[in-house]
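hey so u asked for the seq, here:
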Amino acid sequence: MKIFDANISLKVIDYFSEKLLNVSDIVKANKILEDVSGIKAFFENDSELLELKDKLTVFSSLVEEPDRTEYGDFQTNSVLANKIANHMHKQGFSPEFIIEPTCGKGNFIVATLNNFTSIKHIIGIEIFKPYVWETKFNILDFFLNNPETIKNIIEIIK
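ran it, structure tokens below
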């Protein structure tokens, strides 16, 4: 399924449905999501929260993802991102701060969360709004699948 033109896992859909459908306050919604994922300001404004809730209740967003490769867009897949992060970990890297200037769908961010326990702060930057959402959904999915993981301060900037 897609929301905001971004892929979203069924686990994240279920989480949103359980935790956010009855929440109308953006501050409370952002706090709930920060507590589980570390993402600060998951929603930038009330309309994003309302739109997400509307799409969850309708449960229909079947937009095809555009072929962005014609614009030079290349997404590093999660397997490669994990191999790179794992290699860095084996080489003794132990970063506390990660900045990903073109985070795309968040594969490197999730890979660093998978491989480094030392991270205290992550900043991801992306200009394509559907990828911003997909990054947020992927980080939330990571923390839902790894609830024992220490939550980091994560900012996704568009």
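Confidence is low (pLDDT under 50) at residues 60-64. Residues 2-64+77-157 form one domain.
lmk if thats what u needed
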